[in-house]
Amino acid sequence: MLVTGIFISLEGPDGAGKSTAAQSLVPLMEQVSQQEVVLTREPGGSQIAEQIRQVILDVNNSAMDQRTEALLYAAARRQHLVDVILPALAANKIVLSDRYIDSSVAYQGAGRQIGTQAVWQLNMFATEQLLPQLTLYLDVPAEVGLSRIQHQRTTGLDRLEQEQLAFHKRVQQAYMQLLQDNPQRIKRVDATQAPAQVVQNCLQIMMTQFKWAR
Predict the structure, then answer these.
(1) Cα-flanking dihedrals φ and ψ of residue 38, to 5°?
(2) Which residues, including other chains, have CB under 8 Å from residue 113's CB and lie 6 or more apart?
(3) Angle of helix 116-127 relative to helix 66-80, nearest 10 degrees?
(4) Is 183 annotated to bind ligand?
(5) What H or E segment, with its residue span, contains residue 150?
(6) Is the dihedral angle over the CA atoms 182, 187, 188, 191 positive or is it negative?
(7) What sign does the CA torsion over 169, 170, 174, 180 have?
(8) Topology of 6-210 in CATH?
(9) Minimal CB count within 10 Å: which of 11, 16, 144, 178?
(10) Is 156 annotated as contributing to ligand binding?
(11) How far is residue 181's CA from residue 146's CA, in Å, rounded to a whole number?
(12) Alpha-carbon distance 59 to 25, whole Å?
């Protein structure tokens, strides 16, 4: 399938404010790019992938094997790619995805300690090596992100959010390594700032990267 659109992912630890930023970014992106933006998320984003998401994050599935978890994330990603991302890119749309491959590398590869390279290779197979042109990493200390979730979340924490601080610190360290290894693709945004400033910083990076003008 010919890809002519733009693929952007949002990454960050739990509590970084990705979902909130994404909602605010869509109309601004459409205004400056003059292209339709498809906002989606992982795990999930399509009917089958959302069903896999429910299995992954269900707090009752505490006995789930770590490699099973990684495989389920990759399976959900594959289905999401086929159902949503590739068709949108082929239609010359912009895809803004709340999480993508880097999340699996950080959470399963480092957080679960099953190996970042192994998880990367698994997802390269699942996606046929399709990476975003740009990844915005919303960076907050693990302690800050978890505190935000505990004070702002109106529903219960999912299975990964319930993990101990040491898990979330490994996740953050893996993200920093990804940032270091992929400086052309991944750009850091200080997510300890006010939400409106985070959105403006994200938009400015996009405008520079894709030569959009206000």
Answers:
(1) -105, 115
(2) 66, 170
(3) 30
(4) no
(5) helix 142-152
(6) negative
(7) positive
(8) Rossmann fold (3.40.50)
(9) 144
(10) no
(11) 26
(12) 31
Assigned token pair, 129: 């090596």
Q: What is the pLDDT of residue 156?
A: 61
Nearest-angstrom CA–CA distance, 87 and 185: 22
| Residue 17 known to bind ligand | yes
Give yes or no for a contact between 187 and 115, defined as CB atoms under 8 angstroms apart: no
- Say if residue 62 carries a ligand binding annotation: no
Point out which residues pair with 6 in neighbouring strands: 94
Hey, where are the domains in the chain? 6-210
Question: Which regions in the chain score pLDDT beneath 70?
Answer: 1-3, 145, 148, 150-163
pTM of the model: 0.92
Q: Residues 133-161: pLDDT tens digits?
A: 999 999 998 777 677 676 665 566 666 66
User: Strand ranges (DSSP E) for 4-83?
Assistant: 6-11, 37-41
How many whole angstroms separate alpha carbon 118 and alpha carbon 182?
17
Nearest to 204 by CA among 133, 131, 136: 136
Q: Is 14 annotated as a binding residue?
A: yes
Cα separation, 104 vs 81, in Å, equals: 15
Which of these, 92, 78, 68, 135, lies nearest to 2 by C-alpha position? 92
Query: Is 18 flagged in the annotation as binding?
Result: yes
Alpha-carbon distance of 194 to 134, in angstroms, equals 22
